[in-house]
Design goal:
Layout: H1 8-35, H2 40-67, H3 75-91, E1 95-98, H4 102-110, E2 114-116, H5 123-126, H6 130-136, H7 142-151, E3 157-161, E4 171-177, E5 181-182, H8 191-199, E6 217-219, H9 224-248, H10 267-283, H11 300-314, H12 324-344, E7 357-361, E8 371-373, H13 376-385, E9 391-395, E10 408-419, E11 422-435, H14 447-450, H15 454-457, E12 475-477, H16 478-487, H17 494-513, E13 518-519, E14 524-534, E15 540-547, H18 556-575, E16 587-594, E17 607-610, E18 613-616, H19 619-627, H20 637-653, H21 671-678
Parallel strand pairs: 1-2, 1-3, 3-4
Antiparallel strand pairs: 5-13, 6-9, 7-8, 7-9, 10-11, 10-14, 11-12, 11-16, 14-15, 17-18
Helix pairs in contact: 1-2, 4-18, 6-7, 9-10, 9-11, 9-12, 10-12
């Protein structure tokens, strides 16, 4: 018999049914838009879809009145076909679970995979019976997805993409999971964990291709010692900022100093210069006695007086009771001290003359809870009042690279994969820039000026008088940024020669510092969104690393880039293990790390860093460090042999004890221990098995 397709009446009914479902989806979109605004491009498309649906909906309602219910379809045959597909997918381990990621699920379906739906997806359809779902199921429509997901209810998933990994999920053995376990203290995807990674950077400074450039930050809610270090850093930064301000205004000395009518005493200038001189001496490993006359001003009262006096000069334009003839030579000498300090500490180059600090919640993202403060009392009080947020204070970059007087940052994607006990770091060779909607202004401490996150900027309107060459959607692609560097700044190959190598070294070092608390499980992977800024010399500065980055098409730039990232991710995760020459798209492997070596620290040799030099410790001490949890002092192999020989002599010279009734029993020794006592090698205790 000839195979007949659906009748024209049935086709019209399906078309009408899809139109009605589109209208329901638009209602859901309207509800989501009230909770969270989206880009202008998406709103324009939404209006066009509403106009099309309104026209087609009228036609569909007229057709439904004329057509009536559809004819019965052979549901037994269709159910048999779907069960065969489900059985084949389970045998080939081609079952996936994605958390509302339509781009990723569509790419997997094109590969022949079948997906399981979450309980909150297509809720109206999930309440229908199997007969109704089979009646209206068509290739690729929602009824088919719900019916297949119902058949896969008890089947384990072999590919899991979920924002919050749950151990109770039905997952098959050796499944691909988008989550790599990390410890609390070294989780670089959080602000607090990134500080812990920066503290471990000292172990990797001399490795080739490693270098971590980041602003100074402190955990205000952790312990009292770190709180004290932040206060000390704030005071030192205030001295450097005050000298920067005086240096920038030396050409107009009449505006900053007045010998007869000045309100601020001249002693604060000498106080700042002596403190900077002291900082220079400390970084040069010189004693304060030999490094010059150290300042004798100690205590909080002196620092409070200095900060209020210097801030009155910087913000309130107060004048110093000092002549220009005395001020100019002192500031020139202090400027040389600052230049020496900036050579020792490159992050000092990013500081300006405002001493601004940015407060971030330790475990928040998308710009939530971020504020800028300039006074020490305001910073500490804000952190204490919101102690539950575990605030991190970070030195604000006051001298960033600007494009048309506007602040920006770079979002680039990094992928980590673990396969065959090898951790591979992948970097995507495409990225985009995020601009602020306002002109950069240090006098206005507002999120619209200083926070370039798209989740923050889409809540503000663009400044009317800003440069017209800036994008209206506040995003640039990498090609647009390269065109700007080539045409406007005459800087060719800056991205390939300076920016990209700096990003790679930052990310490689960040991953290596957190390996101590990694949970190495094969076939696990994770995608990260890394945020960088650039200084005036195009050096990348790592701001933060975000897990579960936003991949929604909010603008034209992300609409093109984000689907490419997900498709190339599948090439790396699924295709490369089967074929070592498989095409990986724009993902480039920048580092390979052996998981077996990095499961326990130290890896190959124990290193101590003393004034920038590495010292190798003997193999015997390395074995002791692996077996014992507490570190011991390094000993040479000869010292270990001497101690073992001395033990043998002492045991041979001792007289045997009498085994009388009053004496205690003699401890018997096995043959193995006697042999060990006669040898020159030291005895090492074996770790107990738990």
């Amino acid at each position: 018999m000839e195979k007949r397709g659906p009748t024209p009446q049935l086709k019209n009914y399906f078309n009408a049914n899809t139109v009605l479902k589109l209208s329901l989806l638009m209602k859901n979109i309207d509800n989501e838009l009230t909770e969270e605004p989206v880009g202008r491009l998406y709103l324009e498309r939404k209006k066009k879809m509403q106009q099309q649906i309104s026209l087609s909906q009228m036609k569909a309602q007229q057709q439904l009145k004329l057509i009536g219910p559809p004819k019965e379809v052979d549901s037994v045959k269709r159910a048999f076909i779907y069960r065969e597909r489900v059985n084949a997918a389970c045998q080939n381990r081609h079952v996936f679970y994605t958390d509302c990621n339509t781009v990723l699920s569509a790419a997997l379906q094109r590969r022949g995979w079948l997906g399981k739906l979450a309980y909150y997806e297509f809720k109206p359809l999930q309440n229908l019976s199997n007969e109704v779902l089979l009646r209206y199921a068509k290739p690729g429509n929602d009824h088919e997805k719900v019916y297949i997901s119902r058949l896969l209810r008890d089947s384990p998933a072999s590919f899991v993409w979920h924002f919050q990994y749950n151990l109770n999920m039905n997952i098959s053995d050796n499944a691909y999971i988008n989550h790599i376990g990390r410890g609390y203290n070294l989780d670089f995807s959080t602000k607090i964990g990134l500080i812990g990674c920066s503290e471990q950077e000292i172990w990797f400074r001399n490795d080739k291709g490693c270098g971590m450039h980041h602003p100074r930050f402190y955990r205000l809610g952790s312990n009292a010692s770190e709180h004290v270090h932040f206060v000390e850093d704030y005071h030192r930064t205030q001295c450097r900022a005050f000298i920067h301000y005086l240096w920038n205004n030396l050409k107009n000395c009449n505006l900053i100093c007045d010998e007869h009518c000045g309100q601020v005493p001249a002693g604060i200038v000498t106080f700042a210069i002596e403190n900077v001189k002291r900082q220079k001496a400390e970084f040069e490993y010189l004693s304060l006695a030999g490094g010059g006359n150290a300042p004798l001003y100690h205590g909080d009262s002196w620092w409070r007086y200095f900060t209020t006096s210097s801030n009155s000069v910087i913000y309130k334009k107060a004048k110093i009771a000092m002549s220009s003839a005395d001020l100019v030579p002192k500031i020139k000498v202090a400027k040389k001290y600052l230049e020496n300090l900036e050579r020792k500490c490159p992050d000092f180059k990013w500081d300006g003359c405002r001493n601004l600090w940015i407060l971030k919640p330790g475990y928040e993202c998308r710009g939530n809870g971020i504020v800028l403060k300039k006074y020490l009392g305001d910073i500490l009080s804000h952190a204490n009042l919101n102690s539950d947020n575990n605030f991190v204070v970070q030195k604000y970059i006051e001298r960033p690279l600007l494009i048309y007087k506007t602040k920006f940052d770079i979002r680039i994607y990094m992928l980590l994969t673990i396969e065959n006990d090898i951790l591979t770091i992948w970097l995507y060779n495409d990225c985009y820039l995020r601009f602020s909607s306002q002109i950069f202004n240090m006098d206005v401490l507002n999120q619209a000026v200083h926070i370039t996150n798209n989740a923050v900027q889409r809540n503000y309107k663009n400044y009317e008088n800003r440069d017209l060459r800036l994008p209206k959607n506040n995003m640039w692609s990498l090609s647009q940024f390269n065109n700007y560097l080539r045409d406007d700044l005459n800087s060719k190959n800056v991205w390939d020669e300076k920016v990209l190598p700096g990003i790679k070294s930052n990310l490689i070092t960040t991953i290596k510092t957190g390996l101590e608390e990694f949970n190495f499980v094969n076939k696990t992977f994770e995608l990260f969104g890394c945020d960088f800024m650039l200084d005036n010399k195009y050096n990348p500065i790592l701001i933060e690393v975000n897990t579960n980055p936003d991949l929604t098409p909010s603008t034209v730039v992300t609409e093109r880039l984000c689907p490419m990232v997900l498709k190339d991710l599948l090439r790396v995760v699924l295709d490369l293990p089967l074929n070592c020459r498989a095409y990986t798209g724009l993902f480039q492997a920048i580092s390979h790390i052996d998981c077996n070596v990095n499961r326990s620290r130290p890896t190959n040799e124990i290193l101590e860093v003393i004034s920038g030099h590495k010292l190798k410790i003997s193999k015997s001490e390395q074995k002791k460090h692996e077996t014992n949890s507490l570190p011991t002092k390094p000993k040479s192999a000869l010292a270990n042999k001497k101690t073992a020989n001395e033990k043998v002599k002492n045991n041979t010279t001792k007289k045997p004890q009498n085994t009388s009734a009053g004496a205690g029993p003699r401890n018997p020794k096995s043959k193995e221990t006697k042999k060990q006592m006669t040898t020159s090698k030291p005895i090492t205790s074996k770790p107990s098995k738990r």
